[in-house]
Design a protein that fits this description.
CATH topology of the largest domain in chain B: D-Maltodextrin-Binding Protein, domain 2
Structural class of chain B: alpha/beta
Number of domains of chain A: 1
CATH architecture of the largest domain in chain B: 3-Layer(aba) Sandwich
CATH class of chain A: Mainly Alpha
Helix content of chain A: over 70%
Strand order of the largest sheet of chain A: 1-2
CATH architecture of chain A: Orthogonal Bundle
CATH superfamily of chain A: MetI-like
Shape of chain B: globular
Number of strands of chain A: 2
Strand order of the largest sheet of chain B: 2-1-3-10-4-11
Order of helices and strands of chain B: HEHEHEHHEEHHEHHHHEEEEHHEHEHHH
Largest sheet of chain A: 2 strands, antiparallel
Strand content of chain B: 5-15%
Structural class of chain A: mainly alpha
CATH topology of chain A: MetI-like fold
Distance between the termini of chain B: 65 Å
Oligomer: heterodimer
Largest sheet of chain B: 6 strands, mixed
Amino acid sequence: MSVTHDLSRDRGAIREPDDRPPVGRRRRRLSRRVPPVVWLLLLIPFLVETGWVFYPAFNSFQLSFTKWNGVGVAQPVGLRNYTDMLSDPIFATALRNNVFWVVGFGGLSVVAGLGLALALNKPRRGIGIYRSAIYLPMVFSLAVTGLFWRVMYQPDGPVNVVLAAIGINTKEHQWLADPNTALGAILVAAIWRQAGYIMVLYLAGLKGCDPALEEAAAVDGANKWQRFRYIVMPQLKNVNTVIFAVTVIDSLRTFDIVWAMTRGGPYNTTQLLSTYMYQVGFTLVNLGYGSALAVVIFLLAIAFIITYLARATRED
Amino acid sequence: MSIPTPSRVNLTRRGLFAAGAVVGGSALLSGCLGASPTSNGASNANVALTLQSSLSDPKPKAALEQVVKGYTTYPTTLNTVAIEQFRAQLSTYLTSSNPPDVLTWYAGSVARDYASKGLLLDLSDMWTGNGACAKFSPALKSLSSDANGKQIFVPTNYYWWSVFYRKSAFAEWGVKAPTTWDEFMALCETLKGKGISPLTNGTGSTAWMASGWFDYLDLRINGASYHRELLAGKHSFDSAEVRKVMDTYATLIPYFDPKGRSYTWQEAATPLINKKAGMYLIGAFVTQAFPAADVDDVDFFSVPPINSSVPSAEEAPTDGYFASAATKNAAATKDLLGYLASAKEQQLFIAQSGSSNLPTSSEVDSSGFSALVQKGMKLLASTQEITQFFNRDSSDALQATADAALTKFLDNPTQVATILTDWQTAAKKVWGS
């Protein structure tokens, strides 16, 4: 190590006076060389990231092959946590619910957000009020949204009262206590919040669309749907990529709203992988199995994102 | 030719790395410092004590703050952490290199579990001679002992579970508290006939409330020792004994307010307060939910006996403190524990926290306590057996299996056979792990 080091220094020392490149080349090389302060600025976040993100993440992978309750030494158990998952009925429910959630939450919030964006894109009087009103739920945290909707769904709460007022007798239906409606009821609350966010993203995308193209298509006789499908949508491609990534990540990490509304109940029928992981890891302090669940969530998210990004970049 | 001057680059990188390590390292360190408890009276760091508390409800929190303020022997810092976070981090607290000296928690299996791993300070000398706990009851002593007979816990207050009701409501309806199981069932029928929900319960997001009736029915039908053994894994949830408990539980289902499935325990108290529901099997902490003016109207009766051949038993969850085995100053820690266990401070805490908890010290002057609390003390003094509660007599992991099984049972009582089989399967995993 020290030998190479000295050699290189010698070579540099010898070379320097003779080998001086012409001024122009030297300046180019200098400008290409990254200034030390940039390295410093990059290094600090890198170290912070290493200490607080990569290292714990790596740890979590390691923990998923052990049995550990936070006390003493973790016992290695090989793949047992993963094989246990196969026979765990709650894991199966959580996985099924997660598929339902990704499709339902992702699909409906994008459809609702896009619909709202199209409806509210054209400037007209008071449009700002509508946009703000629809975006407003986004300013509440998901935990607050969950508590708010929990009250809405109470047997004698506003949802049942309103339904009764318009002639639908729900017999004081217990939306969150009935396994058949609980997850759907949570989904409605989550979309209520997410749709405004997606709407804002699409509104920004629509602002970037060239109105002249749409007008030209209209002149050529394209109907509304054709203009939307063949003129507007292709221009929204970049926004779609962002929205897809955001939606998949948001739906896989959904936790707080379910936890605030049902805690995975009644009898684990609304568990998502995230809430089940939290329950196993932090309420029951079964860190090995909890980490294994976290790894599964991570792999699912990565698989989704990579597949999509690979496809998106290939198309480019 | 094109080789850049590696030495300079290397040196710079290395230097930068060192600088970065220093910066990052100090950031990490300060992160640790921020998370670790610091003392306010830092004049002598060796005797500064930390008390980590899970009492995050406003009144108990303020009460403990007041108690700690009165302690002047050693500078003491009180850290209050929300209970869910406290539960999740408890093992981290106890295994950290600089643990809090004293922690609030529960007596029984949880404390014993930590003691078996050598994480708790041996407090046996506080239970002998002139020790602060020497005069506590033998039942409390055995509850505070680990598997080797050492005491590792300082109980400072406890409360009882019973069927709570409003005296004025019972008077309005012309009924009185039952003393036998048949009378109880007849009372349920009478109240139902009047259009009142006989029983209320909050098994929504506080699903553990469903274990209250399970525990009591098991205590009344199979007895306390069977119940303890069941929770310890010595019997099966799929057994004929448990089936009998569930069959009795099923007879109660028509009398529960059906909306309770959506309620928390706090929300389920509202129908009781509003006289829409008659009775509520719950801990004495339910009085917190009552408006101050109505607290005197609250009364209770013990769940009536079902099987006369089993000894009487009540649930009395016991709260208190344990200390970390890694405390830097065991003598000061015990001094603080002794202070917290003293009759005067127990009384101050109970008075300020607004709950209906009972003191563990018999020297507390109970004449100032409400009639309800005095009745509770009498109930626990006269019962033959004391258990705590499902999770405290077993583990939080087993509680999770009970929550799923019992709430499902309350919705689908006819599926009891499969529910019990599934419960036993889930419980076996907990015991086996």
